[in-house]
Amino acid sequence: MSDLASIVDLLAPVAGSGIRLSVPLLFACLAGLWSERSGVVDIGLEGKMLAAAFASGAGAAAFHSPWAGLLAGIVVSVALALVHGFAAITQRGNQIVSGVAINFLAAGLTVLLGQVWYGQGGRTPQLANPERFLGLDLGTLGLDPNSALGRIWGDAISGHNVLTWCAFLAVPITWWVLWRTRFGLRLRAVGDNPHAVDTAGVSVAALRYRAVIVCGVLTGFAGTYLAVAQSAGFVRDMTAGKGFIALAALVFAKWKPLNALGACLLFGMLDAVAIRLQGTPLPGVGTVPVQVFQALPYALTVVLLAGFIGRSIPPKASGIPYTKDR
Question: pLDDT truncated to tens, each residue of the chain (326 aa)?
């Protein structure tokens, strides 16, 4: 029993940390899934997350409410999503270029506005506890806090904030809407064969715009989580490539929501293990530089994508601007 207790003491906090770290990835991965299932490739997930993080941090500080921050993050993210939609859907521009432009715009504009408005090197003001989404205490369910099940419940499951539960709830909702409703059937058809949808009298552009808006809402949640839940305010470049890891998780998940949940949890756990091992001497190696562990999740992402997913086929019309004469 002592060995079991030691294992639980070691793994339960890592599992809890991994779940928390997977939340922004899951929101962004589902956002990319909605967009790409409609045929619109979105490289700009990183930029929309970053802009939403800044807007939510500024909104929460200004109105002293995390919900105001969430609303501000969603509004800004949807606005950028509509810019991408206008370029990719209405103007039939190159979707990759549009997404990259949004990433550059968000990276520069958030720092500029943060410095002009607050004079703190691109940061937003530090948020007090009432201005943040804090963890929810779910009680003990009658479990002994010192038992293995009690430790797992307390360290890995209980104590997560409301946005964490929203992220996991978004997975079955996405699956149900896309695979069990008429709207979802049409949306997936637009991503595979837009000409057939257009022939049936359904607007391809309208469906794609709806998907892009949902993508903006979900990346708004992702950015808000980073600035108002995981942290106490916005810090420049705080997304740290999470939008690109979410895209990798989407490919790894083969554009399916349940697979996306597993992929994001995997990447979150890898990140949590890397943080746990920082400064810990390894047998036969000694203390490894912290930069090695910081790069570990990204390196493992490349390894997993290169060797373990097999053939991953995106929606057939993904990334292809739709014109009726094609």
Answer: 455 566 666 677 788 888 999 999 999 999 999 999 999 998 999 999 999 999 999 999 999 999 999 999 999 999 999 999 999 999 988 899 999 999 999 999 999 999 999 888 888 999 999 999 988 877 666 666 677 777 777 777 878 899 999 999 999 999 999 999 999 999 999 988 888 888 888 889 999 999 999 999 999 999 999 999 999 999 988 998 899 989 888 988 888 999 999 989 988 888 888 777 776 666 666 676 767 766 776 777 677 666 565 666 777 777 777 776 55
Max CA-CA distance within the chain? Answer: 70
**pTM score of the predicted model:** 0.91
Q: What distance in Å separates the CA atoms of residue 155 and residue 249, rounded to the nearest whole number?
A: 25
**What would the two tokens of residue 144 be?**
């002994």
CA dihedral of 162, 235, 270, 32, whole degrees rounded to 10 = 70
Work out the burial of residue 127: count CB atoms within 10 Å of its CB; fewer than 13 is exposed, 13-18 middle, 19 or more buried.
buried
CA dihedral defined by 59, 62, 63, 66, rounded to 10 degrees? 40
